[in-house]
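Exam revision sheet. Question 4 asks you to relate a sequence to its structure. Input first:
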Amino acid sequence: MAAILQDRLVSVRTGNVQLQGNLRIPPAADGIVVFAHGSGSGRHSPRNRFVADVLVNAGLATLLIDLLTQEEEMIDLQTAEIRFDIRLLAERLGGVTDWLAGEPSTAALSIGYFGASTGAAAALIAAADRPRTVRAIVSRGGRPDLAEPFLRRVRQPTLLIVGGADDVVIHLNRQALKELGGIKRLLIIPGATHLFEEPGELEQVAALASQWFLRYLDEVP
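Answer key, structure tokens:
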């Protein structure tokens, strides 16, 4: 009988909250990528789901998970404050990572982070706190500057992808690149804006992320 894709909703307890996510595991997965969403985004974001689809088709498992509860999201929509509580988001991402390590279906999989906007900063902090558990990081239009005190501790291979028309974020990523430890690369996609909404741009992001994770998730730390 042919192996089939596992696709299920999961509920992850971390701290005093329960987080909801979508876990997909293709047959013979080479690793798993956890998505750390950006400002005002979530696991239902079409952009995140598109990238996740590409990763799954490449043989990588994915976990799209909301790092805020529904109640917190409602508050954040009004105040935009919680999305910038990077340490809180990083702690929850770390809790999700610990859950994956103890979950039978994912315990054997190497873990990577795909972070967007403020979620990229949370991913970098969580990776710095778990140097042996997290193997690789990709940031899409990220704000790594918000993780500045932790950047020198990040030793995992890190790919920063920024749109060529996103001038402020390009500058912030260039500054962060100098601080990051380990293997690191900054790729600027010409003409792309912050959300990579132009035709073909998100496809480039997904392809680059897929290549990065396939290359580094199998490496022994």
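Marking note for examiners. The two ends are 35 Å apart (CA to CA).
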